[in-house]
């Protein structure tokens, strides 16, 4: 399946072989055996570049997820080595990028013994539900009755811009006059549902406020775009605290959106001590706040 993925991504058995350290013939034979085993053709070989057949498209849509689950399961098994057990903690993008590595290192007199992995909200929830990951950390409170969740730290989305763009703002920006400053940037990722809901409470339509073509999948990408000085954007305070302190970015007006992060696991797993250590670390970290609170 790994050979298939490489060939599908590059459209070439030769390039797949180079990536995997195999011969071109070994890759070709492996794909042929996979096709013969299931009685399908995975690639159309008639052109200069390999093209996926309908069966190949079906396999591609699932193969990456399957192999990611296999890798995570192996990591979880290895975390149970007698030399020192650790918890496999799956995090959504902003929790992984801006919170968890530092908090794990800060917590207590010794670092928290965790293995961190990154995924979408749906992936993190599925990994915890299946037992692939021990614990999940997301900005969306899981509602499934099999989960126990604890609020461990908080962030907020604030409106920012580069100093040059700030000088173009002629009045204090509020929710009421925010549309006059559009288009507004924000990440198209795990924080988007909460942001869209917050806009709606202020009678603002996200589709009319968002940039029509510039779609960015992470807060780090939004931060980078803001530095160009052309737009305002919503970013997590945790993500841009250092840039604001250095003057690279400036907070604009009063709009802000609260973001709460939750740690959750299956109910039979005890997560209270780990959540408490991370919450204490969050309260001591720059640009962060915490509140270990079970729901």
Note down, in words, how this protein is organized.
The chain has 295 residues and is α/β, with parallel strands linked by helices. The chain has 13 helices and ten strands. The strands form two sheets. Strands 3, 4, 5, 6, 7, 8, 9 and 10 form an eight-stranded mixed beta sheet that branches. Strands 1-2 form a two-stranded antiparallel sheet. Helix 1 crosses helix 4 and helix 2 crosses helix 3. The radius of gyration is 23 Å and the shape is globular. The two termini are 41 Å apart.
Q: List SSEs in N-to-C order.
A: HHHEEHEHHEHEEHEHHHEHEHE
Helix share bin? 40-55%
Per DSSP, the total helix count is 13
Radius of gyration: 23 Å
| Distance between the first and last residues' Cα | 41 Å
Number of strands: 10
Average predicted local confidence, pLDDT: 87
Low-confidence stretches: 290-295
Strand content: 15-25%
How is the main sheet built?
8 strands, mixed
Quick summary:
This protein is of the alpha/beta class.
Task: Detail the topology: elements first, then pairings.
Blueprint (H helix, E strand, L loop, with lengths): L1 H9 L2 H8 L3 H15 L4 E2 L6 E2 L1 H25 L8 E5 L1 H6 L1 H7 L7 E5 L2 H10 L4 E4 L8 E15 L1 H4 L17 E2 L6 H10 L4 H4 L9 H8 L5 E5 H10 L3 E17 L5 H13 L4 E6 L1
Parallel strand pairs: 3-4, 3-5, 7-8
Antiparallel strand pairs: 1-2, 5-9, 6-8, 6-9, 6-10
């Amino acid at each position: 399946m790994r050979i298939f993925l490489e060939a599908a991504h590059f459209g070439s058995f030769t390039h797949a072989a180079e990536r995997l350290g195999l011969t071109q013939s070994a890759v070709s034979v492996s794909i042929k055996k996979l096709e013969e085993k299931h009685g399908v053709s995975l690639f159309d070989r008639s052109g200069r570049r390999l093209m996926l057949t309908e069966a190949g498209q079906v396999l591609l849509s699932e193969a990456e997820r399957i192999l990611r689950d296999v890798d995570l399961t192996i990591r979880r098994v290895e975390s149970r080595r007698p030399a020192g057990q650790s918890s496999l903690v799956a995090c959504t993008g902003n929790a992984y990028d801006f919170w968890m590595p530092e908090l794990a290192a800060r917590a207590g007199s010794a670092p928290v013994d965790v293995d961190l992995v990154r995924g979408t909200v749906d992936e993190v929830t599925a990994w915890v539900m299946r037992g692939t990951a021990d614990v999940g950390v997301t900005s969306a409170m899981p509602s499934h009755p099999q989960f126990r969740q604890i609020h461990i730290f908080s962030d907020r989305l604030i409106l920012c811009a580069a100093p040059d763009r700030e000088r173009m703002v002629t009045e204090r920006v509020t929710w009421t006059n925010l549309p006059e400053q559009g288009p507004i940037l924000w990440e198209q990722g795990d924080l988007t549902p909460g942001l869209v809901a917050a806009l709606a409470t202020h009678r603002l339509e996200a589709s009319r406020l968002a940039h029509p073509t510039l779609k960015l999948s992470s807060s780090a990408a939004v931060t980078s775009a803001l530095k160009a000085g052309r737009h305002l954007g919503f970013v997590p305070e945790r993500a841009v605290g250092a840039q604001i302190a250095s003057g690279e970015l400036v907070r604009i007006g009063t709009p802000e959106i609260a973001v709460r992060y939750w740690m959750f696991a299956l109910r039979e797993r005890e997560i209270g001590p780990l959540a408490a250590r991370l919450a204490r670390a969050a309260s001591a970290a720059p640009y962060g706040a915490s509140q270990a609170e079970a729901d």
